[in-house]
Amino acid sequence: MTSSLKGKDIIRADQFAPEEIALIMETAARFESVMRAEGRLLNMAGRVLATLFYEPSTRTRLSFETAMLRLGGQVLSVAEAKTSSSAAKGETLFDTGKMIEGYADVAVIRHPVTGSAQELADGAAIPVLNGGDGAGQHPTQALLDLYTIRKEKGGVEGLTITLAGDLKNGRTVHSLSQLLANFGVRFNFVAPDALAMPAEITAGLRERGVKVQETTDLAAALAQTDVLYMTRIQKERFSDPAEYEQLKGAYVLDAALVNGAKPGMIVLHPLPRVDEIKKEVDDLPGAAYFRQAANGVPVRMALLALTTGRE
Ligand code: NCD
Fold first, then answer.
1. Which of 62, 138, 143, 273 to mutate to test the pocket of ligand 1 (most atoms within 8 A of CB)?
2. Could you give the C-alpha distances from 48 to 4, 19, 69, 224, in angstroms and in order?
């Protein structure tokens, strides 16, 4: 049977079968080349995407919205959902989900609470895509990260991937490590002790036979690194501002560090960056983070079309 994502929610990066990942990558590549040639497609003509963002976002919201527009669909958007939607009156996400299925064909949610996307999905009969739930998961980002690695490096199998920064609170690295576990990669996890990758994620990867090395030494890890994934210290997840002040600036990537790294290393970052990648790195050939952001469009086009059966 060929795999299908029709009617499915996208909530976690560890929900995918390998055939589903392959289908998403192929569909994104196909959409990207048609979009290059023709500007847009019409797969989602007459369909509506609802975006519910209860937390700040630039890339995720804009790339989902442009993805829908480039598929010929339309977008309904609750900006600043936290203050302007009925959540401020106490409506549960389950009820919001029940309601939204009457208005849209597919929905994207970003929310500060882990598990929130699942709650919306439990209420909604339409596909719900998780655009980031607290310090939990960010599966659509992980898929565009994978798409980027394949494009930049020609494949994923056998690569050494270094995830650096706030691995505790960063949802992108939770999802990305679980997604890449399907591809025979090895990991370096570089973080201050207080911001290490959650033990259950590391244990889960090791149980799947993935090699994981944990260290605090970024420079040493870079000698063996094919893909460096830098992340921001997630200020908004700290209850104690003093702790954030102490940990911010823990890792700063500059041109000297990149030039001392394994030749051909690429640098990714989900963005926004604060101070963890110096601007001087932007001009180096391995700096792929802005290309990575652009890849969000075809990957999110694929997710919108596949979950609604319009691919
Ligand atoms: C990330 C997020 O929201 O988790 N941003 C994004 O979606 N590209 C990373 C971050 O905010 O640090």
1. 138
2. 21, 27, 10, 45
